[in-house]
Amino acid sequence: MSNRFTGPTLTFILVFLLTGCQSVNDLQPQPDPLPTSVVEILEKEFPGYQEITVSPLEKDRVWNARLRVDTSQYDVVLNRTKILSKYQLAGNQVPVVFAKGIESLSFNGGTFSDFRRAPDYNIDFRTWDFSASYTWNNQDYLMRWQRSYYGPPSRYDIYLYPDTETVYRTTNLDDLSDSIQEIIKAKMLAVNNPQYTEDQEFRAAFVYIDKNKKKLYEAILSFSNLIVDDKGKILYYFPINLENSIPLANLPEPIRTYLQQDTEITKYSKFFSDRYAENGNEVYRIFSFQNNQSRTLYIDKNGVVLWHYYMAYPEF
Asked: Is 211 left (phi over 0), alpha (psi -120 to 50) or beta?
């Protein structure tokens, strides 16, 4: 049976849940209701919705809402003032053109499920967005498509992220936790960046959330990128102590050992690596590429992989 709550009733009942999502039918009044502005955004964007579940992604700042309008289901990420990500669920069948589009890529041969399409044009990137879950080599990934050229032929930028359930982008630094904000703000100061004569500005952040709700933040600043995990460990900071491409023979032995056993790297003909070193932290970025596809690997000096992802831009 469907339910629709409006106005103050929805504010009272729709609360963020700290242990998974429930049907709105099961929700009881909680001490921390959703902010009125969030309720108003959902009501305005999805008038007439029948069912909804809401859970926090960043406490008191960002939420995930899953809801149904007639026969359509949506997965939405929003903050207190606007929607950050919106997808319409479209079943497990990926369009044939998308499936065929990855046949020539290094990560082909997997299985798709949970296909989603963005119902609205992405103004920030001037594109249409799509995503799907993708199981490949016994590992779960999130695959995202962004149409980058309208052709003919059309071209899509494809991103493949391991163990990732949700990705969203925000231009509001306050959407991030206080501890992550402090790390980013410190890197924005010129006093902490001798190569810059002025402070940097925060442009945006991509937030990657895995199935265990762990987060990885990629902050885009005026002159640099910063990657940090939800424990505050900096995985990479692009302008600090970067070197020219490091030959394979000059990488630390544990990294060389890992790469020698890595069957993926053999799929690429070109190789680039650089290093981030600061306060005892030493991480290498291994960028492998060939034609229209690449893999980026972040690995510490002990040969432990911290993060990796694939990117390709085939023509369909």
From this structure: alpha
3-state secondary structure the chain: CCCCCCHHHHHHHCECCCCCCCCHHHCCCCCCECCHHHHHHHHHHCCCCCEEEEEEEECCCEEEEEEEECCEEEEEEECCCCEEEEEEECCCCCCHHHHHHCCCCCCCCCEEEEEEECCCCECCCCECEEEEEEEECCEEEEEEEEEEECCCCCEEEEEEEECCCEEEEECCHHHCCHHHHHHHHHHHCHHHCCCCCCCCCEEEEEEEECCCCCEEEEEEECCCEEEEECCCCEEEECCCCCCCCCCHHHCCHHHHHHHHCCCHHHHCCEEEEEEEEECCEEEEEEEEEECCEEEEEEEECCCCEEEEEEEECCEC
Asked if pLDDT for residue 14 goes beyond 50, the answer is no
Which sign, positive or negative, has the C-alpha torsion 150, 153, 155, 156?
positive
Q: Calculate ∠ Cα 146-72-27, nearest 5°.
A: 110
The closest of 85, 50, 86, 47 to 68, measured between CA atoms, is 50
Give tens-digit pLDDT for 134-193: 999 999 999 999 877 666 666 789 999 999 999 999 999 999 999 999 999 999 998 887
pTM: 0.85
